[in-house]
Amino acid sequence: MAELSKPAATPPPSDPRAVRIRLAPASRLAEEPAIRVSPAAEPLRMGNPATGHGPLGGVAVPRPAQKAPSNTGEPAPDHHPLVDDAPTDAALHAAGGTRFVLVEAGVRTAVILEPGTAAEGGITRREVLVDGFRFEVDAESERIAALRERATRGRAASGHGGPLEVKAIIPGKVVSISVKPGDAVTAGQQLLVVEAMKMQNELRAPRDGTISRVGVAQGANIDVGDLLVVIS
């Protein structure tokens, strides 16, 4: 729910058009890695990563570019997305409703993308049928996924002392605030409650300390990266 880190220089933002996709726990074997899908020349149609708008949630799969005639009379090639920063020979063509056709290396595969449902942490979970085989797939903004990883690293380092910033990693609304500057807190104590994707999420202190700053007010709308609380 929050990013925990010591104050540091702000890193360059990740490509806001990228989306991270992996098989959901019910479908994957062991720790199969996620893949990162981002556009090459053709921009993706963006959706709100918190609501999961778009075919795969958060970031929509690009439609193939319209082929334009060339001087030779041959159509120009389609723009294809990047997968883990590598160009691919794959494109997803809409076929009406939830039906798509995946074309890769000349092979056409029938794909059905069922409506997505919200999962914990701003992830959109979607049932996908590929040539009749059923999978569950999780999709989320690459930016949010990267911030979550930084939050995990921050929690691991939270015992080293010094000011600890707590930042939001998903958009939402501050429902209530339980602390004020000067309050002593213990690990696990509730700091505030944030409503995101129609769910109320309690944010708790990752360690003992004193609240040196509260960066938001009750009722405020927050976005990814906003400072919520500083613990010293």
Q: How would you sum up this structure, described in words?
A:
The structure is a single chain. The chain is mostly beta strands and 232 residues long. The chain folds into 2 domains: 19-142, no CATH class; 157-231, RNA polymerase II/Efflux pump adaptor protein, barrel-sandwich hybrid domain (OB fold (Dihydrolipoamide Acetyltransferase, E2P), Beta Barrel). The chain contains 1 helix and 19 strands. The chain has one helix at residues 142-156, and strands at 2-5, 19-23, 35-38, 82-83, 86-87, 90-94, 99-104, 107-113, 117-119, 123-130, 133-141, 164-168, 172-177, 184-185, 190-196, 199-204, 209-214, 221-222, 227-231. Strands 2, 3, 4, 5, 6, 7, 8, 9, 10 and 11 form a 10-stranded antiparallel sheet that branches. Strand 15 and strand 16 (199-204) form a beta hairpin. The two termini are 20 Å apart. The model is unreliable at 5-13 and 42-78 (pLDDT under 50).
